[in-house]
Protein 1
Amino acid sequence: SRQLQLNDFAFDILDIQQADNSTPKSSKQNIDDLIELRPVYRLMKIMQTAKTHFNLNLKVDKLLSGEATLGKARFQLHLRDNAASLNHVDIEIPGGNIKASASFEMINDNVTGDIELNIDKLDYGITARMLNPKATLDGIISTNVDLEFSGNNIMQLLDHATGQLDIAVWPKNTQAAKILDLWATNLYLILLPELNKKESKVNCLVGLMSIEEGRMKEDFFAIDTTKLWIQGNFNVDFTKQKIQLSLFPRSKTARLFSLQSPIRASGSFSDISLNVNVLDLGVTYISFITSPLHVPTRWVFGGKPPKDGSAVCEKFFDRQYVENLNQEIKRKAQEEVDEILDSDY
């Protein structure tokens, strides 16, 4: 097809509503109130209908949303009884590219499947304003996601997920504006005042995460600001909806790479609290950074760190690069140990 107008369809792809903050709500309630995944739920209902067979191969040169041109798109959608697959998804929109594939199978009310999602430097500000014209968010995002999942319903797919979730974000506008009231957004907005202290500005964030049976842990996690390089440990339990984060900042300015007070956040998805305790400094750094792919700060920059480390985040978004660097660090550390041992004889 030459073009496809999304507004011609009878359903709303995404309905964004204002949250009522007067009454505390669970994470699931917030999601249900803020976002209606109508097409997804309709797809799930169709999959529960016996003997439903449907094939759609779409290739469109111009994808439109109202007067806005979103770009090119192609994908294949297949429905077979209680299973669905979305293959060869390739969407080009202003400021980025999305490639994806996914499969779902429903047995009674249980949903299982897998997903691959690769986003290459997508301008999420443009995407946000497609969903909410008043959105003020701006920035770039990249992802490499490869997950197998299982849950009692569409909102609990990560409860027993296994795989990798790698993400890098370069925020341009970090005002406290939300499109979706999700726990990750809440966590970032809670951390933001600490990260922006003393006129510091967040340049980028990179996280290489592994998920095993619904428990997510970082392999490498770092945030770069104009005055700090921050690495940390990140644990999320999707079944219990609990989160625990410890950040360990190092100065990029005065007293180069000196330790700063650690930043901790923990709690449930709907109630995350922040704790910055200066007295915790000495004890914390005895065993700080337990990430499998931890890279000492002096190795990150190789010299005096730049004010804007955005290019560093791009390098560290490459999992193979980080693994190779980590192995090189271990090799050189072992060489130093061997030299010390040899000098004693």
Protein 2
Amino acid sequence: MTTMMSSLLLLLNYDTLSTIASKLSANTLLNLTLTCRTMQHFIIPEFLYARVCLSLKENTQPKLIQLESFYRSITADGSMAGDAVRHLELDAPPLYPRADTLELLQRALGKLLYLRKVVLSGALNAVGGSERPHRPHFDQDHQR
């Protein structure tokens, strides 16, 4: 059944298929990549990396591994993943203390040439002595 569905999806034009892909979760997109090579080449990296959400709420090794894995995927030789990222959401605790992690984030941001939107949550809640929560938000039409 899944193979038949992916075969039907391949009959759609690019614009229709990209609209559908943009509405699917990362897990669903990954499942589609397993159906055939054509879906794999269509989805990775263009749609799988279009919207990236990283949570650094816990200062634990798995969270750091997630960030390092993302960085490696966008900096690997021949990788197009960094060019595919359009939306980046970072969720971190107030005044996130790990300088090495912040440095890695800074290097990663430098590789995201077509990034249009960044949403930071939690990370800057205590900046300037303010205790009220806010969501710093950066939204830009890419002009480089």
Protein 3
Amino acid sequence: MAVIGLLASQKSYFQGLGYLLAYNVMFILPLIAILALASNRVVTTKLHQ
């Protein structure tokens, strides 16, 4: 919510946008990668062997 508050302020818009981008790179992209690997049948089959 703090990032949304920064985005609402015209002065700190780019700072908030930078924080939002950093958050997405550090937390959301690895989560998507892990979920994609976990749902891939080839990868899960190799892990079970």
